[in-house]
């Protein structure tokens, strides 16, 4: 390992500009002549639009245009799409209601887009929006996913019982048999609370049209600019792909919420041509609460069957997933193929059956949020495992060890083939780091101070490195999920790497450069990572699902191999040896068995000046590209142990210890990986203790600001104890698995398992706020008094 | 989001005077905080415009006010609905009962209100506080206008 190679804790190259205010986010960009967009949003959860009177708004100072859904339709602008087809049990395709970028005839959630005002200044646009008169006929709304299928309110005509799909996975008969012979069955009713993503940078867009070349440019906060271009072009029909450039510059966090192709970006781009000026929009924080795709929102009944030895025989799960008012870009995949295939966890479970009903409600669309389906699955499996162990009177660590998969590859009953892992090693290390054997002592010490101490496990697995294109295609994906890369070596030996991955907090400019530095022996400062511009990078599928390492970097590795192969050809001419005798090591091309060598930079120069070979012998230049399509998902796994102390008088839960032992395969940069683990845990704890998007019964979002939506804070956390175990991933050339979502996947179950351990009963839901915990603690005390 | 408020005041005036005032658009206009216009369009219906400020949101609401369950001089139900443009909407009603007591007339009110859009997004703490303040202001204004000390019995002259 060199100081900047694979495995080195290199400080992030990009942080200098981020922390000194020299980053370039969309809102930092201003185009000549730009006008400003402001969206008039629905105050009603569900209403028919009888009439929109825009006369007064059009007459307001500075107003350039007031556009509505009628204008979109007149220009034949297509609807927003959902790119993953799910079929119901009966074989029928999911019921996708129309999703226009501006409402046509009906609004379906508070925050839905009614009209856009474009004006010289933002304040003029806002003032004019006040003057738009909309005549609504308010309709009954449905908000609660558990009520959606019985509701009188109908969100979309195509879905009479508000049901998008009734999907299932697994062998129902085998599960029924397993339950019939079970010694013990654990049943749980679980709610996976609805979350608002809250990236630090809100979404933003500038649409621009150049009449000279008849081409568009969209500057936007995207995790996948090429996919945005594809959808805006092929489906929404803004412009042909070669006439549309999408630039996602520095992006301040996404967590999934910036994967999707939304109304606002679409409208800015379309309006730019209509008014002949660039159009800029920057979401206010409340708009982000209202109209960013939310996360989670499941209602689940789950059962686990075990035999007399405590071996799991089967799992049966029935989930209602709230998809909101419209199907967002990948909404349908999250509670189906990103959820149910993870219900085996790290356990050897012979039979699994999962039913999922996706439902429409009059709430913001729900789509992928850090972990996307996998946190929901882990919450089900790990709550079941913990409660089963308790009900059997078994130590929860022993219960897990008894049921862990030992032999690999392992085929689960729900699609996945786990390639490699060592769950025992992670658990053993976590038990040691958490000082599990002395927990009883700590619990007694807490009790002496009147506090309730609890410990909770979460032994998660996730499927990352999304994904083999053929496999996801067979499951309904509308796209392939490979990645592309191009390695451009300059004559002076410096390097630009163009990647289809997109960095919005992950540190790619550092980790990707480490890979190149490691392989080519070039100093890290001589390497630039280029991403986020469809005119520079040929194509890419973007960053989500912890795919940038396993898929994005693998594409770079493949391109590097081609650069080395070409470099050997050049070196053979320069060093006057046969190509087969050239080896490349430590940044030098050497003739095997001799001291004749040339540095990488010298060969790069020779490749471009092309004096040592003729055009018939070799193409000049040193630039190679590669597409990499993975052969399997990757399966990061690990054990998180959370230890809490509860003050029964106030209901305050303090996290007193947190141990995370993760197996991410080969680690490129342990400092960045640890940061990702910390961030993931914080978001997972946010879900477990604080966060919940609340709509009232009429569909008003009551948690639309930080006054009412509580985010986790630094003071909520102890220092984390982070450990690693490594089983290199066999399905990619780097052996990496991915680490971006692990914390958010593991944490909720660990926290709730710890709290329920402290309380002595299972009756608490997320978020376990002080009020909820206080009430649950009262119940514990009443039980103790009764006993 | 919905909220409810109840309250009562004892007004130092005869019930008939209070009842008349409750049916007088000019009185109501002067009592409703921020009311700029209240026009009677039928025996039981008014057209109203009011400026409302809740925390950072200021908006002009246009809407209709309707009287129902009219039971002179014992009380009525007053209900209104207004659109505040980008600020959202508000609708609500109050059951108002009048009862003769020694010191004059006891007025009890039972308010139910719903707000939507930006107003609801401000959060319950701000909305509930503001709504209570508006109701208190209305009834304080009303009490002042019907009090006999204010230049005779006719509130219009107050």
Low-confidence regions of chain A: none
Number of domains of chain A: 3
Radius of gyration of chain B: 15 Å
How many strand elements of chain B? 7
Morphology of chain A: globular
CATH superfamily of the largest domain in chain A: Aldehyde oxidase/xanthine dehydrogenase, molybdopterin binding domain
Average pLDDT over all residues of chain B:
85
Question: What order do the helices and strands come in, and which of them pair?
Answer:
The complex is a heterodimer of chains A (787) and B (158).
Chain A: H1 15-19, E1 35-41, E2 47-53, H2 55-58, E3 63-68, H3 69-74, E4 106-107, E5 113-119, H4 122-130, E6 133-138, H5 145-148, E7 163-170, H6 172-180, E8 184-192, E9 204-210, E10 215-220, H7 225-235, E11 244-247, H8 263-275, E12 279-282, H9 285-291, E13 298-306, E14 312-322, E15 351-359, H10 374-392, H11 396-403, E16 410-411, E17 417-418, H12 423-433, H13 439-448, E18 452-461, H14 469-474, E19 483-489, E20 495-499, H15 508-520, E21 527-530, H16 548-574, E22 582-585, E23 588-591, E24 597-599, H17 600-609, E25 623-628, E26 637-647, E27 652-663, H18 670-690, E28 720-724, H19 742-759, H20 770-786
Parallel strand pairs in A: 1-12, 10-11, 14-15, 20-21, 27-28
Antiparallel strand pairs in A: 1-5, 2-4, 2-6, 3-5, 7-15, 8-13, 9-10, 9-12, 13-14, 16-17, 18-26, 19-20, 19-25, 22-23, 23-24, 26-27
Helix pairs in contact in A: 10-11, 10-19, 15-16, 16-17, 18-19
Chain B: E1 2-11, H1 15-22, H2 25-31, E2 35-42, E3 45-54, E4 57-71, E5 75-83, E6 89-101, E7 104-116, H3 118-121, H4 124-146
């Amino acid at each position: 390992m060199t100081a900047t190679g694979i495995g080195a804790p290199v400080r992030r190259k990009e942080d200098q500009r981020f922390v000194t205010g020299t980053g370039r986010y969309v809102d930092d960009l201003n185009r000549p002549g730009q006008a400003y967009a402001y969206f008039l949003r629905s105050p009603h959860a569900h209403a028919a639009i009888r009439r929109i009177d825009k006369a007064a708004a059009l007459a307001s100072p500075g107003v350039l245009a007031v556009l509505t859904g009628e204008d979109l339709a007149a220009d034949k602008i297509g609807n927003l799409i959902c790119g993953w087809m799910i079929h119901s049990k009966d074989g029928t395709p999911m019921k996708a209601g129309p999703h226009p970028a501006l409402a046509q005839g009906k609004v379906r959630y508070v925050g839905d887009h009614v009209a856009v005002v474009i004006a010289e200044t933002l304040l003029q646009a806002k003032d004019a929006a006040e003057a738009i008169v909309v005549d609504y006929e308010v309709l009954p709304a449905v908000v609660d996913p558990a009520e959606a299928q019985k509701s009188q309110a109908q969100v979309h005509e195509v879905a009479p019982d508000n049901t998008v799909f009734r999907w299932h996975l697994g062998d129902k008969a085998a599960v029924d048999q397993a339950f019939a012979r079970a010694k013990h069955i654990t049943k749980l009713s679980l709610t996976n609370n609805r979350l608002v993503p809250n990236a630090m940078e809100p979404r933003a867009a500038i649409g621009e049209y150049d009449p000279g070349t008849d081409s568009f440019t969209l500057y936007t906060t995207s995790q996948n600019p090429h996919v945005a271009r594809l959808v805006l072009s092929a489906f929404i029909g803004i412009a042909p792909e070669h006439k549309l450039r999408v630039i996602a510059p520095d992006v301040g966090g996404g967590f999934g919420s910036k994967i999707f192709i939304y109304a606002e970006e679409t409208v800015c781009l379309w309006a730019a041509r209509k008014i002949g000026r660039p159009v800029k929009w920057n979401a206010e924080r409340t708009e982000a609460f209202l109209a960013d795709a939310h996360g989670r929102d499941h209602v689940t009944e789950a059962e686990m069957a075990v035999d007399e030895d405590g071996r799991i025989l089967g799992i049966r799960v029935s989930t209602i997933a709230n998809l909101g008012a419209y199907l967002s870009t990948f909404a349908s995949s999250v509670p189906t193929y990103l959820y149910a295939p993870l219900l085996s966890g790290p356990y050897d479970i012979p039979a699994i059956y999962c039913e999922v009903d996706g439902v429409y409600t009059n709430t913001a669309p729900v789509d992928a949020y850090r972990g996307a389906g996998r946190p929901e699955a882990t919450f089900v499996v790990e709550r079941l495992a913990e409660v089963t162990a308790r009900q059997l009177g078994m130590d929860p660590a022993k219960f897990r060890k008894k049921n862990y998969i030992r032999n690999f590859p392992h085929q689960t009953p729900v699609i996945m083939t786990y390639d490699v892992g060592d769950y025992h090693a992670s658990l053993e290390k976590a038990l040691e780091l958490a000082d599990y054997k002395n927990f009883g002592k700590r619990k007694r010490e807490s009790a002496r101070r009147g506090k309730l101490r609890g410990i909770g496990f979460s032994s998660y697995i996730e499927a990352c490195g999304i994904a083999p294109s053929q496999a996801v295609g067979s499951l309904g994906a509308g796209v392939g999920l490979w990645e592309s890369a191009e390695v451009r070596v300059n004559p002076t030996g410096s390097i630009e790497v163009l990647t289809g991955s997109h960095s919005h907090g992950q540190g790619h400019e550092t980790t990707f450069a480490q890979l190149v530095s490691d392989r080519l022996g070039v100093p890290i400062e001589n390497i630039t990572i280029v991403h986020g511009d469809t005119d520079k990078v040929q194509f890419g599928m973007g960053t989500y699902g912890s795919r940038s390492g396993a898929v994005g970097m693998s594409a770079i590795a493949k391109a590097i191999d081609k650069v080395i192969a070409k470099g050997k050809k050049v070196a053979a001419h320069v060093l006057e040896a046969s190509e087969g005798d050239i080896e490349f090591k430590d940044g030098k091309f050497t003739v095997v068995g001799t001291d004749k060598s040339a540095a990488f930079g010298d060969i790069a120069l020779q490749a471009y000046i092309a004096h040592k070979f003729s055009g018939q012998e070799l193409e000049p230049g040193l630039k190679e590209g590669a597409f990499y399509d993975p052969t399997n998902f990757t399966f990061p796994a690990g054990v998180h142990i959370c230890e809490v102390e509860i003050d029964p008088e106030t209901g305050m839960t303090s996290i007193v210890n947190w141990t995370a032992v993760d197996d991410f395969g080969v680690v490129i940069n342990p400092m960045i990986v640890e940061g990702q683990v910390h961030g993931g845990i914080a978001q997972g704890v946010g879900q477990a203790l604080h966060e919940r998007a609340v709509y009232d019964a009429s569909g008003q979002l009551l948690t639309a600001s930080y006054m009412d939506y509580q985010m986790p804070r630094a003071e909520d956390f102890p220092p984390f104890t982070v450990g690693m175990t490594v089983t290199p991933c066999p399905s990619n050339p780097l052996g990496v698995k991915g680490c971006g979502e692990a914390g958010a996947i593991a944490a909720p179950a660990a926290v709730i398992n710890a709290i329920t351990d402290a309380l002595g009963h299972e009756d608490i839901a997320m978020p376990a706020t002080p009020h909820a915990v206080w009430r649950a603690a009262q119940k514990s005390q009443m039980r103790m008094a009764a006993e | 989001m919905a909220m409810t408020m109840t309250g009562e005041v004892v007004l130092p005036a005869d019930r008939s005077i209070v009842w008349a005032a409750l049916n007088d658009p000019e009185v109501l206009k002067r009592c409703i905080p921020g009311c700029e216009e209240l026009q009677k369009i039928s025996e039981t219906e008014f057209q109203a415009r009011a400026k409302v400020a809740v925390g950072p949101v200021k908006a002009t609401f246009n809407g209709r006010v309707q009287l129902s369950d009219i039971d002179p001089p014992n009380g009525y139900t007053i209900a209104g609905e207004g659109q505040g443009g980008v600020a959202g909407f508000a609708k609500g009603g109050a059951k108002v009962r009048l009862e003769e007591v020694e010191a004059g007339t006891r007025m009890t009110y039972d308010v139910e209100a719903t707000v939507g859009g930006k107003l609801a997004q401000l959060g319950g703490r701000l909305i509930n506080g503001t709504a209570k303040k508006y109701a208190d202001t209305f009834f304080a204004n009303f009490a002042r206008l019907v009090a006999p000390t204010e230049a005779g019995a006719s509130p219009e002259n107050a």
